[in-house]
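ligand=beta-L-arabinofuranose
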Amino acid sequence: MSDTDYKALKAKAISQPLVEHIYTADPSAHVFDGRIYIYPSHDIDAGIPFNDNGDHFAMQDYHVLSLDGPDAKAVDHGVALHINDVPWAERQMWAPDAAKKGDKYYFYFPAKKADGRFQLGVAIGDSPAGPFTAQPQPIQGSYSIDPAVFADDDGSYYLYFGGIWGGQLQQYRNNRYDAQYAEPAADEPALGPKVARLTDNMLEFAEAPREIIILDEHGQPLLGGDTERRFFEASWLHKYNGKYYFSYSTGDTHFLCYATGDSPYGPFTYQGRILEPVIGWTTHHSICEFNGKWYLFYHDSVLSEGVTHLRSVKMAELQHDAQGRICTLTPYRD
Ligand code: FUB
C-alpha cells in the first residue's frame, strides 16, 4: 500500500495513536485513583522476519501510559519493567496487565524462558506507573500468553490467559504441556482461554486453571473450524449491568468479539463483534469505564504504515445498546 493510502487511512481512522514517540500495543486499561492507566506492550523492530510463531514480536521492556481523561494528552511514565530485571525471562515480553489491591499494584506479563516456553510473571509496585519489581520465579502452573486480571465486586481477582499459535496454548491439555499436542480439528470444540482465581497475595494461582467454554447460539461449544468466532488470544473481562462480558481476538480472522455469561468462569455465549479488522495482523484490546462512559482501547499499524509488529495504542468510545449488546466499531470510516 502506498504512502498516500496510509495518509487516507489516518484521516479515516476513528481515533489517533495516544502516543507517537514509541510504538505501543495490546493496551490493558484501568482506572486507578481517578486516572486512566494503560499497560501496553512496547513494540520494537528487532530485525526478526515475520513468521506464524510471532518471533518478530521481540519486545524487551514495558512502559506505562496514563491519561487524565479521554481528551487529554497521554503521559509516558518510562520503563516500568525490563527483561534484564526478570530472572526467569529470556525474551518476548508480550501483552501485560495490572491490578490494584490495597496500596500495591501488581503487574502481570508473559515472557519466554530459555527453553522457548512462555510463562506468566508478576511484578509488584507502589505506584500504578511503576517501576515494578519482578518475582524471582514465574507464577507456578502458568503458561501461554496474554494475562488479563479481573477484579470482581466480591474482592476476588481472576487471571485470564492463553493464546494459540505463537502463544503455545495448543500444546497444553488439562494444564499439561506436550509438544505433540496441536490445535483441535475443525469439527472438534475449539481450545478455550484459561482462568484461575488469584491467591490473596496476588502472586499465585489459588486453583488449577480452568478452561473457559464459549458457546454458540445453540448452546454448543464453538468449533475449531469456526475461525471467525473461536478464541485465538487477547482475553479481557468486564462487567456491565451485572453480566460478565468475555472479549477476545479471533487472531487469523482479525476480529475482536465478545461473549456473555453469569459467572467469571463462564460458560459464555457468543454475542458478536466489537471491532472490525484493523491495519496490521494482530488485534488486541481492553474495555474500561471512565466517568460513566465505556471505552475500547485497541491498536493498529497505521502509524508504521502497516508494519505488523510496530503498533500504536488508540482509544474510542464504546456503546452498549438498551439490551446490553456492544455496538460494533469500524476502525476506519468509509
Ligand atoms: O504483542 C504480542 C502479541 O500480539 C500479543 O501477546 C498478542 O495478543 C498479539 O497482540
